[in-house]
DNA sequence: TAATTTTGTTGATATATATCAAAAAAAATC
DNA sequence: GATTTTTTTTGATATATATCAACAAAATTA
């Protein structure tokens, strides 16, 4: 049940930079928590107290707004969440919610900060991680501003297939409404676009079950 | 002419964390370069060799694409550019172009990396800077996906007024086409929206000259 | 199992925004 | 200063995508 960080197979890459002592310190101070589907892990605008590491299960990272929600990404094991709160405001700039049962390691932000102060390699690894986040956000900005709905949906499906499930068949972990929030389109158009892809023989789908049939065509549509 | 980093009034915040020796080292290794309007400072996808610091003048940070360009932001003095290339790919993920005469300090990336390896406070300051970039990108994602063209144009004008020029009157540093690339709208709609704001008495404008008349209304439109 | 609520689906219609084309103005070049 | 090129402006039109409304199917709850 209890896992030490030194032997954790799903730990984030930056942990490779920690010494035995530091790993022990983190192990002693971490809490392992299981969240159920729909539970909030990080609440946007709340004061940042912890950094979270996903051990298993999928979460959605999203920006909350009165009228319209926006999902930034769906992510799974080995993701590190909350480091972006390490700035002047010390507040989380997005929410994170479990979309299925999720095991998370929660580590006090002061412990992480303290290790950063003593271990430059660890800090550099965090910088690398942040730059990967920036890369993803730049892609998202481009995706939202330059691609039409077919292209966005195709990219989404390929992303699930390639990055999240690593399989041509998978079960969509989110509802049509959430797919709409992830692609910035109306939920009705999510349905229509999926139907359209099915009628063209790009995918087979039934409910949340999806099978990628024509990867090449989807890839061309997504550009 | 020649400026030492220790006395530079426009240096980026992270320089406050450097020791006298480190400041001297940076001063000795930096190059001060003047770019003319239209010249490329950073070329997207090229191998990252330097970090750039803007001493004076304005630049545009943009993503290049065959058919449609996208401007991420216009920024001026004290901005640090190129740190986001400190990841696995070691390539710049965007281009930076001078939109007027710009003085830039160029520092070899190895010098910066070397200082980071020895000075944790400096690394932490870089992390803070990266998180500010992430904040900006999150706002941009929200701005592009949740706001209509009037709202985006209003926000743009207020941003120029508040952040760049710190004045209710200013001269737009970029063309209508570039305003379109910054707000993700057609250049024709940039013209129409500005005309509309003028007819409603929110702004006065003639060519690139702009005066904010009704800050409150613009602020409400931008939400 | 029935009742209720939520989620998904479909077609019709509305609307925001892009595109096209052509003129006017401004800037750059000769 | 005249000419050419580029940028800005305007109006007409096209189109992608959202919205609305009503129904069907699933998932919860009673």
The outline of chain A comes out as elongated
CATH architecture of the largest domain in chain A: Sandwich
Determine Rg of chain A (CA atoms, Å).
19 Å
Going by helix content, strand content and strand pairing, the class of chain A is alpha+beta
Instruction: Note the gap between the termini of chain A.
Output: 44 Å
Helical content class of chain A: 40-55%
Largest sheet of chain A: 4 strands, antiparallel
Question: Biggest interface pair, residues each?
Answer: A-B, 38 and 38 residues
Query: What is the domain total for the residues of chain A?
Result: 2
Model description:
Two copies of one chain form a homodimer. Chain A is an alpha+beta fold. Chain A has two domains: 140 residues, Jelly Rolls, CATH 2.60.120.10; 76 residues, Arc Repressor Mutant, subunit A, CATH 1.10.10.10. Chain A has seven helices and eleven strands. In chain A, strand 10 and strand 11 form a beta hairpin. In chain A, helix 2 crosses helix 3, helix 4 crosses helix 7 and helix 5 crosses helix 6. The longest helix of chain A has 27 residues. The model of chain A has no long low-confidence stretch (mean pLDDT 92). Chain A binds a DNA duplex (30 and 30 nucleotides) through helix 6.
Core attributes:
homodimer, 223 residues, alpha+beta, Jelly Rolls, Arc Repressor Mutant, subunit A, 2 domains, 4-stranded antiparallel sheet, 7 helices, DNA-binding
Show the helix and strand layout.
2 copies of one chain form a homodimer.
Chain A: H1 20-29, E1 31-35, E2 40-42, E3 50-56, E4 59-63, E5 70-75, E6 80-81, E7 95-98, E8 102-108, H2 109-118, H3 120-146, H4 149-165, E9 169-171, H5 176-183, H6 187-199, E10 203-206, E11 209-212, H7 215-222
Antiparallel strand pairs in A: 1-8, 2-7, 3-6, 3-8, 4-5, 4-7, 9-11, 10-11
Helix pairs in contact in A: 2-3, 4-7, 5-6
The structure holds a DNA duplex (30 and 30 nucleotides).
